[in-house]
Amino acid sequence: MQNMKRESLVVLGVMLLGVPLLAQGRPLTVTGVRGVTFGAVLPGVPRVVLRTDPANSGQFDIKGPKGNVLLSFVLPLRMTGPVGALMPLTFGASDAGYSQTQAIGSQVGFDPKQSFTAVLPNNGRASVFVGATANPATNQRAGAYTATIILNVTVLP
Amino acid sequence: MRSITKLSLVVAAVVLTGTALQAQTNNASITATASVQTPINVVGAQQLSFGNAFPGVNKTIAATDLANAGRFDVTGQASTPVTLSFILPATLSSGGNTMPIVSYTGVHALLVTQAGGVAFSPAAGSTPTLSGTGAMFVWVGAQVQPATNQVAGVYTGSIVMTVVY
Question: Which chain A residue shows the shortest CA-CA distance from B42?
Fold first, then answer.
């Protein structure tokens, strides 16, 4: 009896330790590599940054267990500038791209306003690229404007 | 003992289920940045003034006439190309009477002295570049053609210049 009890506890212990490890595999990490850079923007002239722009598009790198992951963005509607001035920021239906090879030239486009299910390859590494359009008004206040773009990644069972 | 084992298995099952449902989530952020340049500002600095005109005698004001040509002063982002376009009236009005205004001419320059100025046709527009300090000056001339029976009076019209990057 004593043995059986001990055995049960051992099994339980193994499960407690083993199951989380099995479920998690590689830990999931998401890194913001590069911001979206519009550079000099003229009032009244929209500025488009394509997700395929190697210098100015935004980039996130993902590391995690191979298999399905859910990507979702938190997107700003405006950029904030001097004295609280705001500049509209828009994202098109194909302004985000997913690359299993982490190559900017090899992306599958998707709508950053919608959740997107992607597959992490065997090495567990991938990249997400993002573009956007800044829409300055004709009387847009001069100065530096910024906004934050967040990528959430969830490992799917 | 049997119930202890059963309990252990139940706990294990709960742990298994609970762990499997815990999804891994992570996130990161990047910044979008932009540097908005100086907005364009246009001021109607001087009226196009024909002075006295006599019936039957055309009168022309050249764009190079610094005293009488119309002048717009433009400021904006230094060394940046802009596009000029105009709305040009075909007639001047005095009450219900009109007088033709034709043959518009233009000069744009980086200095208010008109030094180094470039002639252009306001009807066609132009695409000059602002100076290193973001300035530009635009002059407009034209010709009025009073009829021989032109009714006396003060005739006016509006010339509108639009400047965009």
Answer: A139
